[in-house]
Amino acid sequence: MCAKELLKLKNIKVKNTLSALNVLRIKDSLSRVELAGELNCPGTAVTRITRDLIAQGVLKTAGMVESNGGRPREKIELNADWKNAIGIELSPRHITGILTNLKGRVLVREKIFLNDNPTKEEFLNSLELVSGSLLKSCEQEKLLGVGIVTFGPFSGENKILERVTSYPTLDKFNISEFFEEKFKITPKITDATYSKALYEIWFNSAVSKNSFLLFDVGAGIGCAIALEGKIAFSRFSNIGEFGHTIYKLDGDKCTCGKRGCLETLCSIGVVEKKVKEKIGRSLKFSDIAGEYKSGNTQFNDIIEECAQWLGIAIANQVNFLIPEEIILTGEIFQLGEGFFKKIIDTVKEYAFPVFLKELTFTKSESWNESAALGAASLLVRKVFENIKYIEGR
Question: What 3-state class would DSSP assign to 140?
Fold first, then answer.
């Protein structure tokens, strides 16, 4: 057989191997016959692929399929604990870290809550504690790497933080340099909204949707656009600054310097600010959310106005992009079902009715860890996209 034909066969095997892994990532377990049907390839090819992957420890047997009189069939499944990844979320309020397996099951959790306005030294000490603890929890040969999700915009190949309006003490912080000096690891780095969209695709079955919009609402507001299971980027390799789109020309001044940004109308900070103005003292957002969910109507006007502005912003995007699903996530959804419902009612009021047909709305129940899990998926996805991670090259 000529070299060209050998290369073609090798490419087919690589494609089938990665396809098999991705099917078993989503399915719990399948027989080889069922897997061959999913891949639309010969059973002999599936037998060779699964034999090799079981030998490498990537797949494992999972009992037998019940027989109707014929020969029982062995089931196989992904060995989700074959490799692990670390994901760490950097936030002005806390640092959250997780160690996960290939299916997104959290094996270890670490979280440090930060004081109001901590110094850079306090922040970095906390980051070192969380990272060091997670690294000690993972067998070195199993670790795919570390993913970091950060707040604030970053630029350049080194992902240096710039214009961190919510945490100016971290301006010019070089995350890669920090990890290389402390742990001899070069992390993968992304921003929070993109990371949460990755979580939905890799660990929460949003891959079944052709298109969705994810709105991440907390201290800031982000929006990620996914088309055919892939997240769209701008020309600066990020997903933009949705929270800094202008909605009220004579509105309050934003941390970015402009007036009337969406973040001045709907965010955790604006809720806390308006509550303080109303009652004359500060309340933490978690306490405000608890009062609202318990039925205390004292803050209803503030919270419902916030929901209305967010609903209008989402309706505008529905009219423009016509998605199949809206996913809402972020700390602000501590406000519960009433807040979620008010947003959806507003979207339905302002979006074109034809675009609402078959549009689904989902509130992520894993908002407190989805960013860290999405950061870990930056490493996990490589197992399913690049054969060298299977072959150990």
Answer: helix
Which 3 state secondary structure label does DSSP give 72? coil
- Strands of the sheet containing 94-100, edge to edge, are 106-113, 94-100, 84-90, 143-150, 188-191
Provide the angle, in degrees to the nearest 10, between the axes of the packed helices 192-203 and 367-385: 70
Please provide residue 240's backbone torsions phi and psi, each rounded to the nearest 5 degrees.
85, -175
Distance CA 393, CA 390 (A): 8
pTM of the model: 0.86
Sign of CA dihedral 146, 152, 153, 156: negative
With tokens 């934003």, the residue in question is 254
Amino acid symbol at 192? A
**What one-letter code names the amino acid at 327?**
I
pLDDT in tens, 195-208: 999 998 888 865 55
CA distance 114 to 117: 8
Q: How far apart are CA 80 and CA 87, in angstroms?
A: 16
The 10 Å CB-count burial string (b at 16+, else e) for 21-36 is bbebbeeebbbbebbb
- The tens digit of pLDDT for each residue in 327-368 reads 999 989 999 999 999 999 999 999 999 999 989 999 987 778
Half-sphere exposure of 112 (CA within 13 A, CB side): 21
CB distance 160 to 167 below 8 Å:
no
Query: Ranked by mean pLDDT, which of 61-65, 304-308, 330-334 comes out on top?
Result: 304-308
Tokens standing for 148? 């970091």
- Distance separating alpha carbons of residues 295 and 108, to the nearest angstrom: 35
